[in-house]
Amino acid sequence: MNITKTSNIKNICCIGAGYVGGPTMAVIAANCPDLIINVVDINIDRINSWNIDDLSKLPVFEPGLKDIVEKCRGKNLFFSSNVEENIANADIIFISVNTPTKTKGIGAGYASDLKWIESSTRTIAKFARNHTIVVEKSTLPVKTAETIKNILLSSDESLDKNVKKTFSILSNPEFLAEGSAINDLQNPDRVLIGGDDNYAINLLVNIYEKWVDTKKIITTNLWSSELSKLVANAFLAQRISSVNSISALCESTGANIQEVKEAIGSDTRIGNKFLNAGPGFGGSCFKKDILNLVYLCRYYGLNEVAAYWEQIVQINLWQQKRISALVIKNLFGTLSNKKLVILGFSFKANTNDTRESPSINISKEFLKEGAELNFYDPKVEKKQILREFDDFKDSKISVSKSALGAAEGADAVLVMTDWEDFKYLDWISIYKVMRKPAWVFDTRICLNREEISNIGFNIWTLGRI
């Protein structure tokens, strides 16, 4: 039985309503009003959050996202837990599920756990109809498309044995940065599509051409596309670890990391992006993708290459331990009976994502030293913060609704996320309610050091004496 490949894409289904799937599908819906977009997830609470009337409480905070959701939701953008029906109706299915690092078994601590990818693929194999284009959107190890293809082509789980199904597999990795995701999706540097079915590739190209310049759409084979995503994140993380390593050298020599950054960033061969020193990279991708790359290199016997990339992660962890040790040293070598304020819990500004946030590791070091911690973040909910410290039940941990409220009786304030609001806090009032000597540790280099010092604070700024 011959299957006619669709030439008219009408329905798109995205499996996974998280930080990538939700915003990506919202932008496609906004630019392609003729397409019906269904974002599905087995997490009913998450779907309910996407359908909430109060758009300020969407599960993902991104500047500009709520405006697009308000415009498109209920028209051509839908959020549903009815996975099977939407798979059956879809011409294109994006897989945008979590791929965490394995915690046990072969490759534990390095390799990606693909259980949700496999589960999604088997569900597609069972409920899809006719010809379906399956698109990898999650960040995946090289050759994952081959696994997806094998499952789809060998599956005998079809509900209707008389229905012949065929599949085209494409890789279309995301390159958005949380905190600027909507702008990145609306104005991408490039769109990468990998595959071996030119017809399917062209159908996906046609969708992106609705708002992306054709010159920015790159097509490759599947394996190049999959590897490019891992390598892109590895290179970006490499720059962060590089500048952070130099920030420590600046503190030892009297150089200023901001001046060094400006000097090297003005070289067009280097450029000035991803040269902001700080407490280390976070988020769901960088660490996971580098460790995945390390595992891949070791698998192919490239041990020296693996060791090189693994050091990027080690420097990141070292920077966080270095900062926590420095804070302890300045607070007379002990944190017992001391209260510290942590300003910022998301891994970067303009997002509520806390995955791998530097605030988590540094805060845990403080708790081990007996500190009392009070957190404030303008976008991260209290339960989300407290969830990270389930192993510290006996510690004193609280979450405040304002920076001033958190600072009452505190010995030190640490700026851990570069929220714009933190630059304009009433630091005079904060100083008045703190215990003296009062410290400010600016790990993001976002405060006016002279003004803070003139108020009476002792201030430490990353990357300078």
Short descriptors:
Rossmann fold; eight-stranded mixed sheet; 2 domains; 14% strand; six-stranded parallel sheet; 465 residues; oxidoreductase; alpha/beta
Would you kindly provide a brief summary of this structure?
With 465 residues, the protein is an alpha/beta fold.
Describe this structure in words.
The protein is an alpha/beta fold and 465 residues long. It has two domains: 11-220, NAD(P)-binding Rossmann-like Domain (Rossmann fold, 3-Layer(aba) Sandwich), CATH 3.40.50.720; 318-461, 3-Layer(aba) Sandwich (Rossmann fold), CATH 3.40.50.720. The protein is 41% helix and 14% strand. The protein has 17 helices and 14 strands. Strand 1, helix 1 and strand 2 (36-40) form a beta-alpha-beta unit. It starts with 10 loop residues before the first strand and ends with a strand.
CATH homology superfamily of the largest domain: NAD(P)-binding Rossmann-like Domain
Corresponding CATH architecture of the largest domain = 3-Layer(aba) Sandwich
Rg, rounded, reads 24 Å
* Percent of residues in beta strands: 5-15%
Query: What is the name of the CATH class of the largest domain?
Result: Alpha Beta
The share of residues in helices is 40-55%
Mean pLDDT: 94
Give the neighbour order of strands across the main sheet: 3-2-1-4-5-6-7-8
Number of β-strand runs: 14
Instruction: Output the CATH topology of the largest domain.
Output: Rossmann fold
> How many distinct helices?
17
Q: What is the domain tally?
A: 2
Largest sheet: 8 strands, mixed
Identify low-pLDDT runs: none
- Which structural category do the helix and sheet elements fall into? alpha/beta
Q: What is the terminal-to-terminal distance? A: 74 Å
Shape: globular
Active site: 285 (nucleophile)
Pfam family, one: UDPG_MGDP_dh
Function: Catalyzes the conversion of UDP-glucose into UDP-glucuronate, one of the precursors of teichuronic acid.
Domain UDP-glucose/GDP-mannose dehydrogenase C-terminal: 341-449
